[in-house]
Amino acid sequence: MLAQRRATTAAAHRPESIQHPETLRLPATMADKPDISEVEKFDKAKLKKTETQEKNVLPTQDIIEQERKDKS
């Protein structure tokens, strides 16, 4: 009974929009959409060339088998 009273009290203190999530669904407007005009203007040639290096190499099957044998 106490838990039910707490739940009722907590619901009474919540704003209306939290109690009814369907009221938060508004139609999309132009302001809701991201402005991609700057992305379209971006010049890829200004990017620096980089080399990707693998830092966390997964063990091979041989290494896994060796570790299993070492644990036994």
UniProtKB/TrEMBL annotation:
Keyword Cytoplasm tagged: yes
Segments for region (Disordered): 1-37, 50-72
Pfam name, any one: Thymosin
GO BP annotations, alphabetical order: actin filament organization; regulation of cell migration
Bias (Basic and acidic residues) ranges: 13-23
Keywords: Actin-binding, Cytoplasm, Cytoskeleton
InterPro entries: Beta-thymosin, Beta-thymosin_sf
Cellular component terms per the entry's GO annotation: cytoplasm; cytoskeleton
Classification via Gene3D superfamilies: Single helix bin
Signal peptide extent: none
Domain of life: Eukaryota
Xref: PANTHER family: THYMOSIN BETA
Name of protein: Thymosin beta
